[in-house]
Amino acid sequence: MTDQSTIAPDRPSDVAAPSKRRIGSLELLVGGMLVLLAGQYWLGDWLDTPGLQAWATVFVAICVQALPFLVLGTLLSAAITALVPTAFLERALPKRAALAVPVAGLTGAVLPGCECASVPVADGLISRGVAPAAALAFLLSAPAINPVVLTATAVAFPGRPEMVLARFAASLATAVVVGWLWARFGRPEWLRPSVRRAQPTGAGRWTAFRAAFAHEFLHASGFLVVGGITAATLNVVVPRQFLSGLAQLPGVSVLVLALLAVVLAVCSEADAFVAASLSAFPLAARLAFMVVGPMVDVKLVAMQTGTFGWSFAWRFSATTFTVAVAASALAGWWLL
Amino acid sequence: MKREVQAILLVLLGAAILRISLFSDTYLRYVREALGPYLIAAGLVLVALGALSAVAALRGSHDEDQDDHQGHEGHGHGEGHSHGPRIAWLLILPVATIFLVSPPALGSYTAQHAASAVAKPDTAARGFPALPAGDPLAMPLAEFDVRALWDTARPLAGRRVKLLGFATPKSGGGWYVTRLVISCCAADAMTYKAEIRGAAAPPAGSWVEVTGVWQPDGQSTQPDAVPALTAAQVVPVPQPRDPYE
């Protein structure tokens, strides 16, 4: 606590001199919470409308189910940033991007989480000097081909092991192809430079870890909220009957379910069950739902925009969507 | 955004998660039960790291103090670590929704607006196992629907079954007993329902236990068919701990 006295003279300039700047964030937070508390009854009345209630439930559900994975992913990312030496990752991955991409894609199989975890981890990898193409292949494959997701797929499609194989193959192929495309055509300026600084040593590590966690988590979860709002709105507003009406149109069913995956933003650990229930659609279309879902959806685009910037996110998501639909159609035709 | 605010947001979010997972079963309205331990762990991590950040912010270590002076006007990206991104203000939304509104589990509104398509299970071709003994046989609504529509052995014929669900009005009169099934969170809820005949409709959304006999009317093996049950008894019950099947 000896620090306190030495720091104290500095602090009042921050706290006790509000005339110098706008209202601080702390005051804003406290004021905002008081307003919310006061408005609670009004808020409750307003939310009595069943449609709004359903929206609020879905919104909270999407945020709540993603949070444990986001915490896990951010912890891993912060640990990579603060603890893993750059030299280690450089040695672990092949030098040439053409080789590093498939290796990183396969490594995705070991991170048991859903897509929310992989965005911060990929960011952490890039900041530690991993080639963006390899980190992006990891970002795409991790939520799609890990054991938890593949097991869920096997359970959701009993007696159809080829579905698991097709999902694994199409997802890995998509991740690797997109990684290669990035290595060949990607421009560094699309990818927003990471705000991380050099890795501290010694006692500074824990502080760096904590600060990296707080910053990244708040950043990513803020964008998760944006994704949650979008997904909940689409979830409540888009009528499912309309979609099942499109199931019978030949040729477009793959595209319809791929788009549904983007819109619904179902967690990759559960999407196999949703896909299994869409029985009006052919298997190839349901495969597309499971391949696209963990890689491109409204929640993920929001989170990628937050982490890597919009000019990256839209190019990356559009490319991935195209490749994923093609890979699912191909795998569906070949394996199913 | 100052470090203190970042710390408060982390603690608030963690507390909101703990409130619905550790201190109550409210999380079951939003996600599947298996996620409970992970929610508790995530909540504890957030509260702990938020508290540590608060302590660090109050003590103001040298390094962080410098940052405080650099970037109060930080715009979006150039912010250093100690400046929470502005987007994080949005975290107030889920926190306030959880603490102040505490939205109920999805219910009859969702059921009314959802397509009720009972998927033909991929195992249907190989036949179903025999139904367990019991009279009346208590069974999940989803299982009742699948058996009624897709089990060609018609094991439900003449069996008294007991179904638990909430009441949803049928457009044009009548009502359904309804249950929502989630695989991960409420965003992927699927609706299962059975039309109840021979009993007056309870208020929409109220939970009931219906005992009755399946009434086949030749419309099965169509994915959008809804099986019917002739009810002998409709008992109001409290909402189960886990509202989803």
Could you outline the blueprint of secondary structure elements for this entry?
The complex is a heterodimer of chains A (336) and B (245).
Chain A: H1 2-7, H2 11-15, H3 25-38, H4 40-46, H5 50-83, H6 86-92, H7 97-107, H8 115-127, H9 132-145, H10 147-156, H11 161-185, H12 204-237, H13 240-245, H14 253-264, H15 271-277, H16 283-292, H17 298-308, H18 310-335
Chain B: H1 3-21, H2 36-59, H3 62-70, H4 92-101, H5 108-113, E1 137-138, H6 141-150, E2 160-169, E3 175-181, E4 190-197, E5 207-215, E6 228-236
Parallel strand pairs in B: 1-2, 4-6
Antiparallel strand pairs in B: 2-3, 2-5, 3-4, 5-6
Give an overview in words.
The complex is a heterodimer of chains A (336) and B (245). Chain A is an all-alpha fold and 336 residues long. Chain A has one domain. In chain A, 75% of the residues lie in helices and 0% in strands. Chain A has 18 helices and no strands. In chain A, helix 3 packs across helix 4, helix 10 packs across helix 11 and helix 11 packs across helix 16. The longest helix of chain A is centred in the N-terminal third of the chain and has 34 residues. Chain A is globular and about 60 Å long. Chain A starts with a helix and ends with a helix. The N terminus of chain A is likely disordered. Chain B is α/β, with parallel strands linked by helices. Chain B folds into 2 domains: 101 residues, no CATH class; 128 residues, OB fold (Dihydrolipoamide Acetyltransferase, E2P), CATH 2.40.50. Chain B is 32% helix and 18% strand. A 5-stranded mixed beta barrel of chain B has the order 2-3-4-6-5. In chain B, a hairpin with a 5-residue loop joins strand 2 and strand 3. The longest helix of chain B is centred in the first third of the chain and has 24 residues. Chain B starts with a helix and ends in a 9-residue tail after the last strand. Chains A and B meet through helix 1, helix 3, helix 4, helix 5 and helix 12 of A and helix 1, helix 2, helix 3, helix 4 and helix 5 of B.
